[in-house]
Amino acid sequence: MAIEYLGLSEINGPLVVLEGVKNASYEEIVEFHMDDGTRKIGRIIEIYEDKAVIQVFEGTDGMSLGNTHTRLTGRPMEIGLSPEILGRTFNGIGQPIDGLGDITPDVKLNINGLPLNPVAREYPRNYINTGISAIDGLTTLIRGQKLPIFSGNGLPHDKLAAQIVQQASLGEDSDEDFAIVFAAMGVKYDVAEFFRRTFEESGAADHVVMFLNLANDPVVERLLTPKIALTAAEYLAFEKGMHILVILTDITSFCEAMREVSSSKGEIPSRKGYPGYLYSELATLYERAGIVKGKPGSVTQIPILTMPNDDITHPIPDLTGYITEGQIVLDRQLHGQAIYPPINVLPSLSRLMKDGIGEGYTRADHQDVANQLFSCYAKVGDARALASVIGEDELSPLDKRYLVFGKAFESEFVGQSETENRSITETLDKGWELLGLLPKEELDRIDTKILDKYYHETVR
Length: 460
Known about the structure:
This protein is an alpha/beta fold and 460 residues long. The chain folds into 3 domains: 4-75, Elongation Factor Tu (Ef-tu), domain 3 (Beta Barrel), CATH 2.40.30; 79-353, Rossmann fold; 366-454, no CATH class. The chain contains 12 helices and 21 strands. The protein has helices at residues 133-136, 157-167, 189-202, 219-239, 251-264, 278-286, 315-323, 332-336, 366-390, 397-414, 424-435, 448-454; strands at residues 4-6, 10-12, 15-18, 28-34, 39-48, 51-56, 68-76, 78-81, 89-91, 107-110, 121-122, 127-128, 141-142, 149-151, 178-187, 208-214, 243-249, 291-292, 298-306, 326-330, 343-350. Strands 9-16-15-17-19-14-20-21 form an 8-stranded mixed beta sheet, with helices on both faces. A 7-stranded antiparallel beta sheet has the order 1-7-4-5-6-3-2, with no helix packed on it. A two-stranded antiparallel ribbon has the order 8-10. Helix 4 (219-239) crosses helix 5, helix 9 (366-390) crosses helix 10 and helix 9 crosses helix 11 (424-435). The radius of gyration is 25 Å and the shape is elongated. 44% of the residues are buried.
């Protein structure tokens, strides 16, 4: 039997304190009823003796210490799910906002998920094709992987996310079910409209589930959005056998919301004002990616975060790098040269790439081409540094060829249009075309048999 309490002890921002509570539990959902008929919901985030601290999702406007009736529901936050969610758009707490009516749920699931036994995980193997050469060729995304994009304010991560949603597939010869769960946290209205319009116009909307938390929505709601999106992804993957790609943008907004709520609770801050449990909260989200033994589907994550002041040592990218299996780094200098997508390949990596490419997955020469492109592009940096000191005219003929290679690599391999969807074969062939700008003896990272088969000198 649910107990109803009259009145509150304290209201502080999005938090309220209720005294005299019995049998309450952490993460329990609470209903508030005001005298004017307004209804709000919240969740218990802290319990101390007979006091419960409750986050109110819709904010505490209109609530007072005396006019509020509080009822503990005895259950955690749940979301109703069915295959009908494909092609639908929801707000940050899972309510439909596309005007197509409510979902008829097959099942209700706890948004906090269940911890995945590490022994039950299967090692990720097959790749996901994004159609973007800098990702597919050099930092390949593997099913079940978590591969974040490190961006900065003003960089085109929104365009890149939209392009990945439109182009991502399991490869040309796959007949398995594939879908995308897209969650936006703290985005402006025009950005949300950009995503919605882009997906609809491209025809991708049919296999996308969207969760949109806007910048003017309550801060507390932002903390739930990624959890709700991942619960939907786990349902489609592990209950319905689909391969799901989850794109979360912007993780920085999620962390800022966490810092704001932590400050309201009066907690002692850690690095740069973020709570000490920032690492465990991020790990709770990221570790919900993977493949479970005996179940047909998979959950792959691309979290996108904007680095404050482009600082890769900031707590959010720093902790994200510890938990995830690599990163894709966007570069302001390349963006300034009008190169899209401005992916800086040298600090970017995919730790699972080596096990999901090559013979039987992409093409036998993939690993060698990637290694050689990384090596040659690193030497481009040395040649440019030397040219800045002694002048380009004084460089050796070989260094001049490296400069030509570097410019072509950035504009033709890394750079591509927003609508260009390259297959893995096109990406690798483009890599060979650019390697042909260099003498054959410089290509020391490629097996001799592969080199003899694919190398052709490119004259420009």
